[in-house]
Design goal:
2 copies of one chain form a homodimer. By secondary structure, chain A is an alpha/beta fold. The first copy, chain A, has 18 helices and 24 strands.
Amino acid sequence: MVTSIASVCLSGGLTDKIHACAEAGFDGIEIMDSDLTVTHESPEEIRALCERLGLRIDMFQPFRDAEGVDDETFTDTLRRAREKFRTAGRLGTDLMLVCSNAGTATVDDDALAARQLGELADLAAEHGIRLAYEALAWGRFVNDYRHAWRIVQMADRPNLGTCLDSFHILSRGHDPSAIEDIDGEKIFFLQLADAPDLSMDVLSWSRHHRLFPGEGSFDLVTFLRHVLRAGYTGPLSLEVFNDTFRQTDTQRTAAHARRSLTWLTDRVAVAEGHQTGRIPPPQPPRGVDFVELAGADLSAVDHMLEQLGFTFRGTHHRKPVRLWAFGSARLILDEQDRQEAPHLSGIGLSVDDAAQASGRAQALGAPPAFRRTYAGDHELKAVASPDGTQVYWNDRPAETWAEEFVGGNDPDADVIAVVDHINLSYPWQDFDEAVLFSTSVLGLDAQASSEVPGPRGLVRSQVMRSPDGAVRVPLNLAPPTAPNPPRHVAVRCRDVIGVAERARARGLHFLPVPDNYYDDLAARFALDGELIDRLRGLDLLYDRDDDGEFIHFYTPTLGDIFLELVERRGSYDGYGAPNAPVRLAAQRPRL
Amino acid sequence: MVTSIASVCLSGGLTDKIHACAEAGFDGIEIMDSDLTVTHESPEEIRALCERLGLRIDMFQPFRDAEGVDDETFTDTLRRAREKFRTAGRLGTDLMLVCSNAGTATVDDDALAARQLGELADLAAEHGIRLAYEALAWGRFVNDYRHAWRIVQMADRPNLGTCLDSFHILSRGHDPSAIEDIDGEKIFFLQLADAPDLSMDVLSWSRHHRLFPGEGSFDLVTFLRHVLRAGYTGPLSLEVFNDTFRQTDTQRTAAHARRSLTWLTDRVAVAEGHQTGRIPPPQPPRGVDFVELAGADLSAVDHMLEQLGFTFRGTHHRKPVRLWAFGSARLILDEQDRQEAPHLSGIGLSVDDAAQASGRAQALGAPPAFRRTYAGDHELKAVASPDGTQVYWNDRPAETWAEEFVGGNDPDADVIAVVDHINLSYPWQDFDEAVLFSTSVLGLDAQASSEVPGPRGLVRSQVMRSPDGAVRVPLNLAPPTAPNPPRHVAVRCRDVIGVAERARARGLHFLPVPDNYYDDLAARFALDGELIDRLRGLDLLYDRDDDGEFIHFYTPTLGDIFLELVERRGSYDGYGAPNAPVRLAAQRPRL
């Protein structure tokens, strides 16, 4: 299927948008009238630029307030339309969108609407223009796609069809299955947008909060299957009004938008059992193979890992890189980075087929990550995630590559531990892109998001996890005025109190927890006094729900990274969210 | 009346909040349980700090999920409560808030709720604690203040009263007049919050979008009058959950919050005809006396004013300050600033009583502006607005102070012109503060706000104007990732086309307007071709509505300032909003 995107989805000027769309690999673009109006380039220049870049101008849009009006108003409608048809012709497109009347409509009469749309179509025909009539969710009299289609049928003009927009249909809860009743030839255009599940008026929801497919809660796979079954063969076009994407980097947003269509068409092809339109299948990670920290001097990290009871597994035989392990939780410390403070630099995921995972990532437009490899080293495929963290895939046993590390100790067979979760943080404007990357490239699923009050504002937390929960990546969204919170790696063990006691005995002091927290804990849960005292003495945090208990502690932050040690009891499946404000307050930089 | 504020209104840690509240002049504070939990200071330290700063701890809150539950759950409720009553005692407050049950309530039975609240009150009495029961707007069974009051009456305990919260009452559209039926002695506490008129679920609205009084659409004056008539004499306390204020500077937000209560109590005192609680009355400006631009070198501004046809009125007899005039539009160029590029530095407003205006501003906590004056100079009172622009008040004729300028030309009697509007810009997080400053200190009224798409995101525009429209100050709110747009001064004249032609003849080129704009104009309005050509030839912009027409142009930007020349025909009362995207696109910095 060919792809397209409305120019309103992106920031910048119209020519910037056109360049970004072409570079991201779109086949076409919808030119918004308002984008053309503020641009110095003539319609002929825009047309020529698109031709040079191989971008089709699929539609010029929108034309508003056409039908359901009195005769005098309609005379002016035809006058307005003539001007716009000329502009469409200068742009070299033969298609214009006509939105159902939300402003000036005064007559609720389908016969009148059909007659007026018919006349408009006849005028359009004189200019070689086709019209796609769309029901806006807030149209005055026409706000249901089935209603718009009935009027198109009544008007019965060869150059008048309908335009379907997933937002206008799914936001109203209209059943999309009746799309299959529409003659596919008469679906002149298709606009796709996802959206979060918000309870607000549909106009504000549409104008500010639309998302690219895969980022919201609409079932666009089912929606698109209905459209394709109706026989539609035109472009899949994105029309996303979003306050954030209006501000973010034009090229980056275009790439991210394009990824959403690749993801969607792949999902549809798989659901339909097609062979075309498919990319390598997702490889949901079976576990975290390793986590890599980088920095110019990681000796403080070595020291802390030793205090926590990690085993030093050795130094890489060719590079200034060290391996530490705590059970199956492997941390690689990479000092090839000469500049920066300690930070999270890479995540290694265990998958069934690394080549497939990597192939899928590249098909989804993820940039390959550069990694210096030496003869004899195991080469892992990697891409860069939106925050720059490199993601590696490994389909061999971990100990295969661990052989490259020499001079260390054997693993401690008594320690049973794994990486429980890896907490990433994003500036607010990159959040939706991060969610789509996690679902489409990493094969993780989005859980319900939550908000945590911190001293610098609310931090939104969105957990992404693999289907069986073996890999969990909570994404944290910092408020706009606050710096990104540090990232962290949580290691799950069987006896976190024992681990804490031994680490404390080795001189490690954890993130300090206020006494008031333990008083509140005693009020919330009827815990026995001895346990409370033990938690208090070690700066341990506690949570409980119907499924089980959670005990955890945080290390101090080194550079941009800290560790968490956790123990899950029973079937506790959360992350100690009630304790997150305690952490945020304790980690607050003192000014 | 004494004032108070919930700690949740502010950013930072609890001790920062306490210091800021005391400094802003609040009499008391409500300590939120969640703020105490994450704090290292003990309740006794918090109590002692508040005592030292003269801040009363008016309430400890909230206690949730108390009533309407089964017996087993209620046993645990009493256990939880006992711990929290102890904490309240340690804080030295005798009042706790009990919210109507929104989480665990299973029994819709007022008698049961009253019995359980009664038992809870009896337990509280043992700790010397009083309870204020409040109906949350989203309480499971109790979500109306009248219902909560009935249950309090049924429980009939001396230490059980009700708490009224304006948000929970007005967001549901409940009639506040029945507040007068409540025994004033039994209103144990009053929480005040304003809110914008949003159509979204009430829980999200409450948790994220509350505002301080005077910043939203609730009629808090009427609300508070009902509460006072009921006989309430306790604190007026602010409880504002707002995503932005959680991030902004603690001290600044506290000062801004305190201003809202001064404004509100003044409005109520005036409405009730009281003499106490009043501050000097507002002085709605009768016109713009002058606008001051500052910078190290303003010669480019001189040049542009000359091209526009302004008259040079002279240089100040003691300072490097020049005066230009176009009819009654007076621009002062102040080169005492050695550092900065040209920018808007001050606004002079004509009022009936400058001393009253200045006294009111200072009563509302506006910081007095420093201004060097010399012997013999007219001294104008001034304060700094939230963006740093100085605001002066003058109750004498303009030409009084204009005598200080010498060596210029006489005013051109043929020119009829005034300052039409002054466009200020704010970063998004200071916007609500700017609105409250404009209403309470400047005596302007907020008009409906609008949003304008720009190449770097949506710009929100909020027009503030004096009752008769003589002074208009549109506030522009930049998106978080974008720099503040430049400020501008619009001068209204009678023949903007003539002004433009003469300025063009003197070599001034205006902000260039795209040809496409004129094609769109021709489509939107049936303008005659000659007018379109004239507008196009001069880069003039045009708008029309049912009231009249608007023609205007923009100068190039010098530093952080540009000028606009406008002509209003008929009763046109807008600002050419449809043309704002053209300006934003043309002014976009090229990267």
